[in-house]
Amino acid sequence: MQSTIIRAERVEKYYAQPSENRIQVISPTDLSISEGEIVALLGPSGSGKSTLLRMLTGLSTPSAGEVYWHEKPIAIADVNVSIVFQSFALFPWLTVFENVEAPLKALGMDPSERRKRALKILDTVGLDGFQTAYPKELSGGMRQRVGFARALVVEPEVLFMDEPFSALDVLTAENLRSELLELWQKKTIPTKAIFIVTHNIEEAVLLADRIVVLGRNPGHVRTDFRVALPHPRDRKGAAFTQLVDYIYKVLTQPDSQPPALPLTPAGKPVRDQRQMHYQMLPHARPGGIAGLLELLLDHNGKDDIYRLADDLAFEIDDLLPIVDAAQLLGFLKVTEGDAAITPTGAEYANSEILRQKELFRTAAVENVLLLRQIVRAIEAKSDRSVPEEFFHDMLDEQFSEDETQRQMETAINWGRYAELFDFDASRRRFIQPEKLHHETDAGVAPGVKA
Amino acid sequence: MNFPESFSNIPGRETLARSQVLKRSWPVVLDLCVAGIGLACFYAVVRIANYWFGHPVPEIVISLSPRALPLYAFYSVVRIGLAYLLSLLFAVGYGYVAAYSKRVEALMIAGLDILQSIPVLSFLPGVMLAMVALFPTRQIGVEMGAIVLIFTGQVWNMAFSFYSSIKGIPRELSEAAGIYKFSRWQRLVQLELPYSAIGLVWNSMVSVAGGWFFLMACEMFVLGDRDFRLPGLGSYLQTAAGTGNLKAIMWGLLTMIAIIVATDQLIWRPIIAWSDKFKFEQVESTARVRSPLLHLLQHSRALLTIERSTIRPLNEGIYRRLAEARRRRAAKTTAEDSTTDAVRGGTATWLRGVVLLAIVTAVLYAAFHALGLLRQVRAAQYVEILKGALATFLRVNVSLLLASAWTIPAGVAIGFHPRLARIAQPIAQIAASVPATALFPVLLLALVKMGGGLGIGSIALMMLGTQWYILFNVIAGAMAIPSDLKEVATLFHFTTAQRWRTVILPGIFPFLITGLVTASGGAWNASIIAEYFHLKNQTLQTVGLGAQISAATDSGQFQILLLATIVMALMVVTINRLVWRPLYRLAETRYKLGG
Questions:
Q1: Burial call A320-349: b when 16+ CB within 10 Å, e when fewer
Q2: Which of A113, A117, B316, B536 has the fewest beta carbons closer than 10 A?
Q3: Would the pTM count as exceeding 0.80?
Q4: What is the pLDDT of residue B35?
Q5: Chain A contacts to B (CB-CB under 8 A)
Q6: What is the mean pLDDT of residues B351-369?
């Protein structure tokens, strides 16, 4: 067994709310990073990947639990880690050289030693000759090289990466990935472990010795397993694709293996989002749902989600909310990573716009509690208008401030589309929609669809 | 005689040699320039020190001869410069503390909001008396008074800008500073100051322009039976106006415009050109401000050598020491047990409590005495002040309306037509940079000649000072309207009214509100000068809150001064809260283009 560098012990993150409840972002989690491994952290958006990364680096303090750096609490240890950021996080007013030099300056190193080290690492990452350039003069790939150089120049024990390749185009990302792997395997860099957060399954399987998959609401570890494939890994190989498929299934079936309910320090069970009053509305647009269903219909009503994402050139993170939404509305059923269209879904996809709205309306009122409540509340009021505030307060009990806002936006979006209600943005009130067109103007051009 | 021949054998040698000469001698010229500037600064410091630490000149007579102007202008520039430096330091300190200490943040920002609304000129007597009492035998007392006053007119928007910049630093950038263990110092130098530089530069320009406005008022004024006078451009212009000397006024104005143009070329342009690298952008922009002076400074070898032998080692020393301190701290926290920590925490809390208590006591004491002062105010005076407040309120709004009436169409026209903008913008910029207080005497003389009084004059002065804020914002707003929106209007043959209602007015709305808020604040402040003026050996005045403040200053009636100031501050804050803030919110939500 290799020695452990960072160990998280029952760390959790929650935000206290004014009311009794609190918003649990990450439920108590154990995780460790050992010498000699590349760990990939996968998970849908909202599963707290980045939050977990920041707790492991000591940037953010866990609400409960403790992170240890070589068995010392991380808050008082002299931690030696780096982060490569998704947005690069370079200082635009410093040259490439000054950017790389800055962390060494913070360490109080001599100017001559600083210069030597910075130039050496710039050479290693292939930035020779770019010392005096400013980041804005470089391409995205070159900028991230500076990001890597800055991270590696302090010779970190653990190199953290927060979706380092997702802001780059496919080819550049591939290139940088393989160069990083080479540096790691040839031990050109003294780094002892790498921890990468990603939403790209293939990337994880390509790089990692160990993959951790997070689930959401609240964030928790679904599975944590070792990847035994030898390097270089072949994307087309059977073992590779099987592994990708397996992770896929884990990601698309959030409820297959319900984890035990976590306990608060007081011994009271934390509220699980799935037992909550309101479902979490996936942030998808009605147009997107219709598009997905139509595509699925073209594929004989059933297809692998992974292949669908590929066909659409979508990141899985962007596709999942749409799938979730279609499933919530009863237009779709997901089993074993395959999405199959339901009879209502098929009818929806085949109808023209007004009929689509009608189907959506029925499905929404039937399946979405929040929309049902808004409609009922409007009907119950004599002036046929209800302030947004009213629902805001109820959602607040379950969701964070930001999430409440997004839930509200999605609900408004869906409700407007389905003509369940209208929303007066200046007064922030839900109102009954004006009945402009009735059954008679079904003659709207079919081209309006989607 | 062989030389020319032998030289001519080598083609291009001559031109090469010449370019060599140029290359070699150019830095020497640059160095000479820099040395000259350095010597000039030295002399200036000596001169100022001599004057400040000399005994107060009992009765300064302001000479109206044009020959006195260079020295007066110099004194005024030093005053504004020092006040500005003070503002910069204070703004950075205030913004920093407000952004990083959660406990006092809300209080400090509310304080900023109120301080921004308080009419600066009301502080004139208090500040002056305090400063003179501090340095009773030195000229520096009165000087400090003027500087502090200009400072209070400049500092708030800068502090606000720095605070909101710090708050707006992208999360990943500050996390990068965290993970690489930047010390507070390094964070400030490499992250916070650069990130806020652009905002600070633009606000500095606005502040310095505002400084000129107040300079006119605070270089010469009467408080009760005491006559405070400082030699300077402001007092020169005031004296000239007081005696109706038109020629002297013109000389004064010319000097001022020259200074303003020079400041723009010699200070602001280099700074803007330099601050270009602090733009937080991913792509390099094409249009850039260029400055020969900046080039000169950046390529001077003498400056480079000085920097290498002074600032750089100093900097290295700071970084080394900070890193050592951090390591020591880290070692200590691991070695120490938690009990000493708790003890130290206890002492800190205790100390903080004492300081807080002292501050609260002082504030309560001062507030109590101030309120005691208010008891001397008679009921009739209350009525007077309320009447004045109403008059000034009307005047401010009329001036805003009049200013909007011409600036909105003009601004939209300039914003829509790039060719017009190229001609109009520099003219407007120069016109805007001449402080209204300097133009006022000329305007007023003309008005009096035509039979008009201060009633119209004060509105004109308010407009003079504030219309530019509206104009520049409207231009920016009109430029920001996307051309496809304009094309839609043309495509569907919108009538002129329809075009204004559906495209132009909503498009410029957020900008217009920003301009109006600034203009409204400025107009209130201007009323103190505008409604009460010494001209040609007589005092012109009209009914208004500003006139009451000025008159109270003149006659040393502190209770009226205090009451009128409170009323004015209350009105400004109330209008901000009730009118501008909701409009601002509307602009942010409904009328925001894009995003």
A1: bbbbbbbbbbbbbebeebbbebbebbeebb
A2: A113
A3: no
A4: 63
A5: 54, 57, 59, 72, 76-78, 81-83, 85-87, 89, 91-94, 102-103, 105-111, 134, 136-137, 150, 154, 425-426
A6: 82
